[in-house]
């Protein structure tokens, strides 16, 4: 499902084609609620030359909350994991060595050795998907859990039409989905070997009032 299909589905589900002009606003508010309540979702990105700031330093995705694991590819085409050595230790590795370690500093990540221009750097991380804007836009969270966007948008649609019971029903489904995703996230974090460098903050309990 993409953004255009999502708008169409929400209107059809509510039988409110008369709210076509408002549906984008309902989805935008649903995205805001997702960002507030979802601890994080596992995403993947490949860094390229557009992300490189200097030598082995790259800009991290703006939506990254916690980096899980990094992979790169050797000159022979074999994929392998790059280890997190921490900022105090990164300069112990020479820039001309193979890419073996990385360190995160704020919004940037530094590799040693320095990756080649065409070397793939694949990051697996927890974050929030980018906001939907064009009709063709889609993201992993929408693909995997479309009900999160649908029920969130329906919640705001029914609030707009003052259908309190329907709004509460949509919110209940939204909260249950968020809770399940947050529980899955907690299990992944507790079982993983990589330490995060961001504090997620306080989780908002499910079932919050409208």
Characterise the protein shown here.
It is a single chain. By secondary structure, the chain is α+β, with helices and mostly antiparallel strands. It has 2 domains: 3-39 and 132-191, no CATH class; 42-126, no CATH class. Helices cover 36% and strands 22% of the residues. It is built from 5 helices and 8 strands. The protein has helices at 3-14, 23-37, 140-144, 146-160, 164-191, and strands at residues 41-47, 52-54, 57-59, 64-73, 79-84, 101-105, 108-112, 121-127. An 8-stranded mixed sheet has the order 1-8-4-5-6-7-3-2. A hairpin with a 5-residue loop joins β4 and β5 (79-84). α2 crosses α4 and α4 (146-160) packs antiparallel against α5 (164-191). The two termini are 27 Å apart.
List the helices and strands and how they pair.
Blueprint: H1 3-14, H2 23-37, E1 41-47, E2 52-54, E3 57-59, E4 64-73, E5 79-84, E6 101-105, E7 108-112, E8 121-127, H3 140-144, H4 146-160, H5 164-191
Parallel strand pairs: 5-6
Antiparallel strand pairs: 1-8, 2-3, 3-7, 4-5, 4-8, 6-7
